[in-house]
Amino acid sequence: MEELVRIKNMYKIYNPGEDEVRALDGVDITIHEGEYVAIIGQSGSGKSTLMNMLGCLDVPTSGSYYLHNQDVSQMKDNDLAQIRNKEIGFIFQGFNLIANLDAIGNVELPLIYRGISKGARQKIAKQALSIVGLEKRMKHKPSEMSGGQQQRVAVARAIAAKPPVILADEPTGNLDTKTTKEIMEILRELHRAGRTVIVITHDDEIAEQAARVIKLKDGKIVADYMNQQGEE
Ligand SMILES: Nc1ncnc2c1ncn2[C@@H]1O[C@H](COP(=O)(O)OP(=O)(O)O)[C@@H](O)[C@H]1O
Ligand SMILES: [Mg+2]
Asked: In this protein, which residues make up the domain named ABC transporter (predicted)?
């Protein structure tokens, strides 16, 4: 399988000097196409910092990051924005939907930035919404949907353009147990369908579902193992 993520000797240091925080302290990670990886660790271990790096939302203090064989570690904001749009589908804890757009409008949004025509956009967005079981809610605004439905819209938005990587940061952090199961099942299905899924979580049950678990502590990787019960 093709290599998607190659991070070498990555550091992210906040407040360099006396009060410095090594949020990432020499991290090496390689992730191949089609993997299902959970990144775990306690609060403050560096998960969100790593998510920001993986998602090209920020650049490291030092070290290299090749995403799909492109060095993105020194890129400027404009180029990073393009890489994000092309390579990564984001799912956030707080859904991050646009309040005054309906479900289909939200899913279409990243497709607009890709320059896809209106007709094609609507078709792609409808397909994505039916994958997450929301074909009957296309015209609903976020305020007219439950948390679980909103997160499913966010999943549809993340997968619509078929980005190489789906990156989820605590995707079930705001959901109840039942809805958590539904969202995790959708992620599992996406993985089965060949997508690369990276989930950041502090929830052990979610981590158990992933095929591979990477554990962070104090900005360092302290474990990286294949899960027996997880997906192949
Ligand atoms: N913008 C920032 N400025 C200074 N310190 C930060 C900043 N962001 C995160 N940190 C620190 O970096 C460490 C890792 O934080 P974070 O990546 O948010 O961890 P996690 O997501 O695992 O809780 C923590 O000690 C945190 O306080
Ligand atoms: Mg965090």
From this structure: 5-232
